[in-house]
Queue: 4 jobs
Job 1
Amino acid sequence: MLGWLAGVLWRLWLGQPLTHPIAHTDEDSYLNVARALAGGPGGFSSETPLFRRAGYPLLIAPAYLLGSDFAATYKIIQIVNAAVSALSLPLAYLLARRMFGLGRWAGLAAAFAAATVPAGVFWSLVGMTDAIMAPLLLGWFLAMHWWLRDAGRKRAAVTVGLLTGILYAVHIRGTILLAVYLGFLALALWRRRVPVRLAGLSLVPVALSAALNQAIILWLGDKVHLRGDIVGAGTLEVFTDADRLRVFAGSFGTNVWYMCVVTAGLAGLAWTVSAVEMLRPARDAAFRWTAGLALAGTFAVTAGAALILAGLPGDGDALYSRYVQAFVPFWLLFGVAALINEAALLRKPVLRYTVVPVLLLVAGGLFVAYRLRYAAEHGQRLGYGTFGGPDLITVTAGWARLRPYAGTVIALAGLAVLVLLTRLRALVIPALALIVAANAVTMSVMRDRLVEPLGERFSTPIDLAALGVGPGDRVALGGGMTREGYFVMYHEVYWQDLAHVPAGEPPADVDVVIGRYAPGVTWDGAAYGFVLLQASPKKGQIAVWRRQ
């Protein structure tokens, strides 16, 4: 309980500089849907008809009932995120004890290492589905292991189905995991690992979750208007177009390398153990099948994400790890367990298993470097930004560009240190404490270098309430707004969906206009009978005008 509370408070401190969304436009989309579900005005969503999910907005919708303004609402959302994300600690502890057979103190230390990994912590600071994906996956694997230890348990079967349904309702990744789960069920039934009746029972919550998701979408109707394109044509061409196939391979390989780097090679070690167990079973069925499910789910999502990204226009991203980051805490925990519980989990000395992560790190680093060089030589632009991989950016100090060689060297050094320290039983806890310390330092640097600047960039330049603008006023946005001005003020006007006045005289029912305020592009409200209330020529470049 105290560990969970400490995790909540730590996450709230990390997110303290943020008062408005920073991960545009996906974060805005989830918040707009949540606002609509709470009975407020609708708004836009960057989702596509195929990808629409209501699970996360449903979770945070009550924040719009409790908050009196957007800043208060956003803080409540951060509290909800922190409370759910911090559940990674107790879930990881239970996995460490039950699936990996670690002792009490070693299990607790390993759980802290997994629960503090930046890949799982960063997204809890913002209003994104990723805030809750890591604990959901840890819970899913834990429930699966629980069920497989005694296949006749009804509660375990229902819990697995419930978590599968929630994953489906939260994000398109959940759809991929549902497909993996259905394949798992088919195989388990064929091998007579689970009873037919309980397999069917586990699908009941899945069907109910899918139905609820669709019912919410139908209820919303066009209150939330979609801006995303229908995914289809580009995705289908991936395997028939050489350029798109190249983007697919690049995205897939980069994400595999990324997961190895941010776990200091422990993910690669865990994958090796899982694969060996699939080919030459030596442990109990619950361990083997859970590890297999995790392995299949991870690489299915990695491939699915690469497929989707390759189907989009353009040359892709140098790194876009968001879709796979939720798996990092589990594989870090698995890799740690393999190091410190070697006798129970490994068939051969650990050094033989580390050959695979070393090869993945070296080959992956060379592959990513080649991809970057190839793109530069052919005049292609690979996307690179904060949300592609904030943890990797921080660890490698790659603030301006992706640094594959630095990432590879750092991960190899980390793997060597962990292998050496865990050879002596007395140094196991210090080795795990080193991981926790590295996680904490990484998040602190990330807060200073990424979170705080973004929080300042997307914060309120003008206090509308202080100007007497609030519910009852009909507000419109002018054309040519800066990105900062548009997204901040869009959420500040929380009582309505903002209309737009690209140019000319605003409609008669508009009381207040928030327009661009900069030399040469200032919206002149005085020409239409508006009086200037306040202007912010530097931050946001906006001005607030009220009709006289």
Note: The two ends are 57 Å apart (CA to CA).
Job 2
Amino acid sequence: MNVRGRVTLPIEQGMDDQLPQILDRLGADAVRNSDGTWLPEITSQLGVKVYETYFPARGNQEFALAHLDARPRFYLMSDRVTAPAEGPLAIDIMNGYYKMQVEPDQGDLQRWWEVIDRTTGEVVPVEGWSVSGEGADVTVTIAAPVAFHVYTVSFLAWQVWDSTQMYNYTTNNWENDPTRVREIGYDARHPDAWEFMTSSMRKWCEERPEVDVVRFTTFFYHFTLVFNDLGKEKYVDWFGYSASVSPLAMEAFEAEYGYKLRAEDFIDEGYYNNSFRVPSKVFSDWMDFQSRFVSSRVKELVDIVHSFGKEALMFLGDTWMGTEPYGKYWPEIGMDGVVGSVGSAATCRMISDIPGIRYSEGRFLPYFFPDVFKPGGDPLGEANESWLQARRAIARKPLERIGYGGYLSLAVQFPEFMARIEQIADEFRSIHEVGEGHLPQSSTIRVGLLNAWGAQRSWQTHMVAHALWYKQIYSYLGVLESLAGLPFDLQFISFDDVRDGKLDDLDVVLNVGAAGTAFSGGEQWLDNDLITALRGFAANGGGVIGIGEPSAVQHQGAYFQLSDVLGVDKELGFSQSTDRYPVERPEHFITADLPGALDVGEGAGDIFATGDATQILRLQNRSVELAANQQGEGRGVYIAGLPYSHENARVLHRAIFWAAGREADFDAQWVPSNVGVEVSVFPEAGKAFVMNNLTEAAATTLRGRATGLDGDGAITELQLDLEPMESRWIDLQG
């Protein structure tokens, strides 16, 4: 294939002789710099689109040092400290924090700080505590604590060192480079900072006529990222708003909403309102308040960029609080595109599904950083892993562009890696060219994923720090990872959407997560209107799939409030006196491609069938891991957990068809017999894109209709032998 384009490559100074050949080889039609690199003078002669990184809220150390009162802040909580039998209690509030990143803000501390008795939840009156010390060495002393009660201090703190620049600084060993400084950020709410941001934006655009795309490394407020006293991550929440606070913002909030904010509204008992928490009204108000502010100011910057004939591109990471791309204010900004790091199929869909932009771009792994591109590193292996994860999502909802980041001078030292990304670029372009620019066909089964966030956090559930692995979430994140490459148009719906009648637009609903979290729902399930809506949905023919601890809250003798629909409940120890005689019946449509055990990851544990009508499909240690249940005209499916694997993706694929009552249609869907192979059908082009997701050769049978997925043509059967990781286009009409 001689098609070129759709690829952005990082370039840097000192490679002028190599750049034209590398760009030609990879078919790259755009170049960019990275954090810590600069575009070479030859850039304007390369004949490609030019991106340049821009940091609205950091990068000018002279301004930052002259306006230290404009630094961003966040709320932090001290250690939990137990009071002694008698006498005062002294708490070193900076214990465990990195003093080069964090410094307590001792402004109006009696207004903005809070000392809480965590044993009772009561706030200690301000006259009951005092503060001593300065800079990063601060102690709060509680004069008369209650003996053996636990206390914490919630304090407002300056961000002394920008979190992302700190990460890049330490990762790339910049401490020995005299040209590198520890950058300080500035807050867009500060009047001087905002005037500086807008004037700097205009000046920057004027001085760079060669730049076509301003690649905003997001905007004003960093996600919550705090380091410990060893300079390692202490707390990270990619969705956190704790770093968006300031007295200016909180006073403006009070003037608009009519009530005061307190430290605990952000500290949230030390959970910092992370996305696993069911959002409180106060936190929802704060998110909306900050999103309106950020979006309005980002629009001003985007308008400046457009006035110079340039495009505005947002990096989905780092400082993105307030510009959530599935939020209701996003369309008002006018952003041309979004680029984000692709760490999995789910994160790829998170980027490619963003509405209201002209193009989406995925930044593939590995970054060209010395932590991978070094003797003993495996950049080729990481590139293959990244592509296999992303490809199945791209084949469902293609990104418009792909690219890489980091130091090209490192990557070219690994010729096998360069050869592989050349192949990846060609394979990516084929999806657009052979697919003729159309989206692949999806099943007509309408699928919704139900949680507290709904559409606002589309493709972002069960994540802590992007796509990284965490013990208690991989069993749930695997559901999103599976769905990212399956042929369904997934809708993310909230509990309020259900109350508003959204179930009428769906055939199957999934509720996935651990009890009490925003994703399972917690006390939302005590609402009669919600629970009867789901039961009525199932009784009238809808499908409900619960994974982990769905609808879980103890109430009236049941833990799963949809136990009647799902056919299972969880034993909490209250009903051990009830005898149960589980019988496994493993043969079922759902398990047809699962000859052995089901991997449920951490699993939910102690799940029992509620009656003989429940079909127990997998049982382990007398705990149900997979079950199917008929409920009225509808069906329920329960799965104890679903880490991503080829086998588990197939189980979910079949479970959705069975829950929808459409299992008779499954064989006409071009579903490969080998679960390690997947297919995307492009009916307008009359072709299908077949992907071997395995790193070994695979043989498979394909059965489907020549007209696509849901047509009435004759069923055709094909036999294919695929090389490791191979993709192949097949003609559905031939």
Note: The longest helix spans residues 281-307.
Job 3
Amino acid sequence: MKCYIKDYPRPQFVRNNWENLNGTWDFGFDDANVGEKEKWYQEFKGDKKIQVPFTYETKLSGIEDENRHDFIWYHRTITVDGAKMEKNRYILHFEGSDFITKVWVNGAYAGSHRGGYARISFDITELVCDGENQLTVKVEDSYDPQQPRGKQRWVEKNFGCWYVQTTGIWKTVWSEYVPNISLASVKMTPDLENAALKLEYEVDAAQEVLNEDLVITAAISFQGIPITSQSIMANQKHIETTMNVAYCGGIGQGWGLEWGVRTWAPSQPDLYDIDFTVTYKNEVQDTIGSYFAMREIRIDGPNILLNGHPLYQRLILDQGYWKDSHLTPPSEEALIEDIDKIHALGYNGLRKHQKIEDERFLYWCDVKGMLVWSEMAAAYQYTDYAVEEFTKEWMEIVRQNYNHPCIITWTPFNESWGVSKIETRQVEQHFTEAIYYLTKSFDIMRPVIVNDGWEHTVSDIITLHDYEEVGETLYKRYTEYREQILTTEVYHSSAKSAFANGYEYKGQPIIISEYGGIAFDNDDSGWGYGNKVNTKEDFIRRFDDITTAVKKIPYCCGFCYTQVSDVQQEINGLMDMERNFKVEPEIIKEINERQIGYWRSFM
């Protein structure tokens, strides 16, 4: 793929004129919340240094203070090239900042954003000048369980499976020069049946420019070989078009065998390059590099189909935590290492749990053929405020990551977190239905799971969580009592019903989307699910026993093992926090990939 630029934060919408603003920033705690009153944005009073994008709680930040500080400030100097400002706007991006982010430039207020997991962008063109400029950021956070938190604790100490809070900037900060006449976004939807790609352009230009002289050209290629191109007049801000991507020349093995296109799948993750050019009166205004894949994910009765073929999903739960940097990846290489090691363990996908990962991670999942379930960070209290915050940020995330082919499932809710009375309370049921249909209104392709593991309402896949440690017991539960579980006469695990009151099974695919969680570590203070094992032999025996039991369930079309690596007090990973394997990966891989019955021929 030719659009790859190392560390570029937005790999599906690449411009060359950008600057990474990570590194050493001035920093200060403002526990009394006096910074705005004292105008720290004019005269910064912080007395510390921090390494952005690592939060102050982490070792890599240079501070490593795990205590609660609800008001924090950042400051640095940015340099702007005045010559570039004649035909460009200067945009400031935060890939992730938790929770309320306020920005000042040269003492003037630039704007704010609420939410911790979606990208934030500020147009600060009118506030910057040629040369050095002062950038000041205040971030406000709290232990409020109404806001989307994911696995961040909301009390002073870690407990259960909740960990040290993440406060402030925790993903890359960067800037770019964006032409005055430009593309704001492109939504790309593959139509495999018709060998076509649907494009939805959003144009950013003055109204008087939107005429026959403004043209968008898209050029598609595969491994450097041109496939097709199309030019379309941009006489309005929103434009839809379709491009046929079938190629009759025959490129490589498997080309044109079914649809005349190369499809994306874990075994062969073929990606097309697509370049966008915006011209006005035949003069180039904006150029963007991107990529897409031709792949189809859909539900067919009890089956999940990828490109028309049954897909058996061997997933692993991935919380994306690191010892010295917590939620923030320590490097791009660390992201690649995780994906490669997950593949080495015999998994074809992962469930990114309670976190929206760095988009570089999704890029590498696209490149390496790793299936991804994208799961929203949960709130833990149901209120009108929680509904509003969750809905706004969830749709920002869906829009931001829509084009990544690796994402095959949206999972907005998990285990009734934030909707604790969903089994009986209609208002909470209606909220989950609203999120389901809102997600489907934006994305017609992907399945949406509503309330993964526990009381489902409307859901394209029925998912069950079960940490039973004896394989025979697990197998009998889901073979002898299948109908009772799906009709809620018998609860599956954790004394939870498969459906909320008033909802019923309608023939959807079924996946055991959490199981295992075997604690295996020399740390006696940590925990896992069930009894801890003390030797490698005991771990392998139990892992094989329960994994084989799940695979034998005839109607189950996938599983998700808990989990990739240890996370703080939770020691049930297949790797420790330094990403060292606890058991040789080839042993785990053989168990995971061992075929059992007809279904497994599609693994």
Note: The chain has eight helices and 31 strands.
Job 4
Amino acid sequence: MDYGPAALSDSNDASYSSGVYSTLTCAEGPSSSYSPDAAAAAEAAAEAQALRKLSDSLESIFELPRAGSGFSFSDATIVAADGREVPVHRCVLAVRSPFFGAKFSGSQSGVRLEFKELTEDFGVGVGVGVGVGFEVGAEALVVVLGYLYSGKVKAFPKGVCDCVDEECLHVACRPALEFLVQVLYASSRFQIPELVALYQRRLLDILDKVAPDDILLVLSAANICGDECHGLQAQCLEYVARSDLDTVTLEKGLPCAIIERIISARLEVGVNIPERINFPDKHVKRIHRALDLDDVDLVRMLLKEGHTTLDDAHALHYAVAYCDAKTLTELLDLGIADVNCRNARGFTVLHVAAMRKEPNVIVSLLMKGAQPFDLSPDGRKALELCKRCTKAADYMESTEEGKPSPNDKLCVEILEQAEQREPLLGEASFSLAVAGDDRRMELLYLENRVALARLLFPMEAKVAMAIAQVDGTREVPLSSRNCKDLAGSLRMHMDLDEAPFQEQHLKRSIALSRTGN
């Protein structure tokens, strides 16, 4: 079948003529008198039918290249922030969008555009500084570009707007909100006012269901989009002003001018916000600056002044939210902070880590005694908070053998294992208590099971071993690269027959059992 431009044109002409004839015949009949109203209605119906046909045809030339059919007139490529490529047609985009009209003017066939480059100097992103916009994934980019081709607003892609929490309605969870914001941002950047208005309306409809921290994401996007999203910005400002978000959180996510407006609004309306939230202590600020510099020694010196403590400064919360894992580990090693301390808003350090979704950070806290069952102010455990922030598509993403799982999935699994830790410990203790002389064989089996996991799934095994506090395996050198070699090398480096099954061996078996599970 010929899908060339001429074929598409002929098809539309034929459909148009057929539509006019059939509509006129039905409206007037073969022998009826001419009616201007009936003719106008027939013409409008024929035009609507022709537009639908045109929309479907343009939609097909946008979708077929991405489906790998080999049929394509595409002469340009737009690369989403996640690295995936979307084939496009310069003539279509240039006609439909003034932005692309200017961008493709004088360009050659085969041009490749990075979305990051398209959004330079467009505004301020969330916590990333001036001149940088939001990262827009391929799914959101396809929705916006698809609208330029067909004029149709697509349904939300499954898995992209859903979180992992099965009890969530996926209306205002983090994945759904991020998708809406990405589409809004791309629509504004590509100068598509009708799409901006539509997604602004959708965000306004769910704003009362959005968590305060996530409203900052919407507010930042509305601020970037400017006058087009004035209504959304005003509504977000009102919600944030009435929330318990502290100044430190605001400073990390918003421009200074917006923060000043929020503080002024709080003072004007007399919102009951504690003084320390709006105006943090100067000594606390110094500790936070030292953490920004990853200088734990400076933190130790500031603490010697005696003006405050790590818990009063909520230093662990700050380090978990904004610093790297190494800085947090050094701070924890000081041994003078309560790992289960709650901040002014009622969140524990582990709650903040669960929302950040960094595996090493979560493991560090769990190893220092963070409680996974503590509830947040809205009644959720760390695992539930992490699930609400995790996109279903990322969680379900399959990985090849030997490659690490996505960080989001790993965080959920770490917290799940942490909740099951005590039952597993009891089961392992009971199993080893009745094992008798088979204890040595069980330890040998567990050592090699963990070693095999380290060969096939190095990242997951590393995290699991850190949780269980296992420093390594003793049965097979990790230089072994072949699973068959591993099976033939089940030999302990330590001789378990030289002494009775001592307490340290029992503890190691329990730790290895927890790691393997």
Note: The longest helix spans residues 36-66.
